[in-house]
Amino acid sequence: xxxxxxxxxxxxxxxxxxxxxxxxxxxxxxxxxxxxxxxxxxxxxxxxxxxxxxxxxxxxxxxxxxxxxxxxxxxxxxxxxxxxxxxxxxxxxxxxxxxxxxxxxxxxxxxxxxxxxxxxxxxxxxxxxxxxxxxxxxxxxxxxxxxxxxxxxxxxxxxxxxxxxxxxxxxxxxxxxxxxxxxxxxxxxxxxxxxxxxxxxxxxxxxxxxxxxxxxxxxxxxxxxxxxxxxxxxxxxxxxxxxxxxxxxxxxxxxxxxxxxxxxxxxxxxxxxxxxxxxxxxxxxxxxxxxxxxxxxxxxxxxxxxxxxxxxxxxxxxxxxxxxxxxxxxxxxxxxxxxxxxxxxxxxxxxxxxxxxxxxxxxxxxxxxxxxxxxxxxxxxxxxxxxxxxxxxxxxxxxxxxxxxxxxxxxxxxxxxxxxxxxxxxxxxxxxxxxxxxxxxxxxxxxxxxxxxxxxxxxxxxxxxxxxxxxxxxxxxxxxxxxxxxxxxxxxxxxxxxxxxxxxxxxxxxxxxxxxxxxxxxxxxxxxxxxxxxxxxxxxxxxxxxxxxxxxxxxxxxxxxxxxxxxxxxxxxxxxxxxxxxxxxxxxxxxxxxxxxxxxxxxxxxxxxxxxxxxxxxxxxxxxxxxxxxxxxxxxxxxxxxxxxxxxxxxxxxxxxxxxxxxxxxxxxxxxxxxxxxxxxxxxxxxxxxxxxxxxxxxxxxxxxxxxxxxxxxxxxxxxxxxxxxxxxxxxxxxxxxxxxxxxxxxxxxxxxxxxxxxxxxxxxxxxxxxxxxxxxxxxxxxxxxxxxxxxxxxxxxxxxxxxxxxxxxxxxxxxxxxxxxxxxxxxxxxxxxxxxxxxxxxxxxxxxxxxxxxxxxxxxxxxxxxxxxxxxxxxxxxxxxxxxxxxxxxxxxxxxxxxxxxxxxxxxxxxxxxxxxxxxxxxxxxxxxxxxxxxxxxxxxxxxxxxx
Length: 949
Description:
Elements: H1 3-15, E1 20-23, E2 27-28, E3 35-37, E4 40-41, E5 50-53, E6 58-61, E7 72-75, E8 78-81, E9 87-91, E10 93-96, E11 105-108, E12 119-123, E13 140-143, E14 148-152, E15 166-168, E16 181-183, E17 195-198, E18 209-217, E19 220-224, E20 235-236, E21 239-240, E22 244-247, E23 252-256, E24 266-269, E25 271-272, E26 275-276, E27 278-282, E28 284-287, E29 300-307, E30 314-316, E31 319-321, E32 328-334, E33 337-339, E34 342-347, E35 351-353, E36 362-364, E37 367-372, H2 379-382, E38 403-407, E39 413-415, E40 418-419, E41 425-429, E42 443-444, E43 447-449, E44 454-461, E45 478-481, E46 484-486, E47 491-497, E48 500-509, E49 513-519, E50 528-529, E51 543-544, E52 547-556, H3 568-571, E53 590-595, E54 599-608, E55 613-621, E56 624-629, E57 631-636, E58 656-662, E59 670-671, E60 705-708, E61 719-723, E62 744-748, E63 760-769, E64 779-784, E65 793-798, E66 800-801, E67 806-815, E68 828-831, E69 845-850, E70 852-853, E71 860-863, E72 871-876, E73 886-888, E74 911-914, E75 919-922, E76 936-937, E77 943-948
């Protein structure tokens, strides 16, 4: 036979529809009388057949004959598998309940009677029948509405010996390179020949190793090949960094026939109307599944199933590994259970809540490791994962930072999971900002380690806020309890949100940053009532908006887990070789809590082992040379080398700590990096400032501050710790000696929330209309005058784009006491960039004064050409009757005051127009008539001054 003839015959075989053989009654599969062919009776299903089990028929699979080469299994009745032998079913497609056949079922074991032999389903795409058109319809294991798939493998080796899905190493010495024996924390119920995976305990997730068991003796496992990496087995300061070990092999297997092209099969439960399919998988191994990048083709997929019946759908004690497109997708489905599973070596987000509407799902006790980033080298298109109708790839852009657990609604139970290695993040919480307020589920006792970016990650999202009008209103507070995060290259916890979050009972170690808290941009709208801990007890029942609180935590800079150092700098690290979060940037600071924007509270937290390190060799970056890797319990956002204008952001002056526990192992309680530099040190920046003036980098670094409530940070209770910034020092204070970029200046105050004449701080937001000629105002300059030595200190505050063509500038300023400054003077002077034309100066702008003490104010001088403004409207942000505090200026009397609040108390000047110098001096004041003087005025009571030309 010629090669051409053979090729034509093979092509004809591929394109020819399979013969259909169907059941004609209930009975045994091995009984020829059970079957009827369209072309004749009396033969069992065989190679190339499409098998149809008719509705109402119940069959018992009791033979392997003919199972290894089927085109299609169309199960519209019921099929149970006899537990007397091993089986291998090789088929291109399986449908359960197709065509509306409610009650269809495939059952291999049950939870009460697990299947004891081996049952293997191999999905093979050799039969590309035109009946199914789209190649993506092949390799499918579909559970249609009203149908049920039950696969229940072994869960024990006998009474009292469960088969554990995964365990940790027993506490003790680490497993060294070359080891062939491990001791587990419990008896695993595993046996000789099983395949297992041990997780990385370093920053590099690829140090996870797949092993085969040679012998089991109680908790002791002998395995091969020998370990290529060391794996930690220690617990230190309550941080458990023991390696997890997971079981990959199970007696029921669903896999793909070929993995070379990353085109694997998939299991899917679907819905129609109020009826959904049911997936019930226990003790099952799912291997080589998922079509790389293809929409809807995932190893396990609940697809648009709606609200599931209670305890009807689960994935328990399973392993999902070597898969190509996620692991488990829960898509517009509520009530699914994913529990006690091992998920190893997958692409893109592994456990994936797809549409941000999925609630009431239980994701508990799972181990996920080696979550890969999809390729960006063109293979996506080559592998057929471009949807023809849109031309778009199916992996989301967020898959470039994949997470092992991608959770999109708070109202799910996320408990006891381990994210042990991802090319992105361990757990990524990414809720829909526009989602309606609802209760929050339980997020507790999860572990994140060995992730390339962050352990727990939330970025630019709004957790559900407190709503006092709802019953059980605190149900909306997003709480994360019992989180453990270690050996993450960036942060153990990265929580950047526009709302409120509480992290309690936290244990962190060996992350470059333990905790990063931030709000989503500048705070500017309504807030909620907060009462979540003594650290902010004086704020209880007050309104505030963004609040990130850490309570009852232990944060370890560097533990005894040294990892597997490989680079020259790691091998030469002082004190002995140690792997580094980013070996190429050894000078990056080691931080316990990083201070950024939004309210940050830290309470009852232990810090240990934050030690400076002398670099083996100095490192030069951006013209600056570093010889030291500093370490601190608290540190400002940004690195010391930030000497160029950055993204504008402001620091909340209410940031507070109390109950800190620091010992001699912490070299720096706090390091606040302020980018002081001579004017000439900023390339491209021209500042008309006197000699000796300093310029800020253009962001909140210049105003980093923490309020030490009980003295546990620096020994002085009720003390502000601020950057060495003359703008923030009391009048007449001589500038402190500069000690590098980390100098701290303590400002003691008499009480935790009542200053009564002492200095305090508030945040000022300036919103400038971007009229013609003002687009060049990318930054504004603040000058502090009246210094003890006559020095002028200039700071550039760079703006961010706002709505309607406006631009925001934000900074923190030192407030004057109510008894001071009974006459106009320039405490702070604002100017526009050099070269800006006076006739182009904006005449419309808004000042927002917030986050300070009641009845405090600042004096601010602003260029204002062309005469005084036509009006200044003043009002509290939450007051809908804005006209209540609106006063037209008209023709001003330079010798008269304009009382903003006619309460008989305020008699200071509220504005002053200096016609000779064409400057407007304003006195924005924090005021709430319902609060006594000296109490915090929080967000939602911000004071607005709206200046109109």
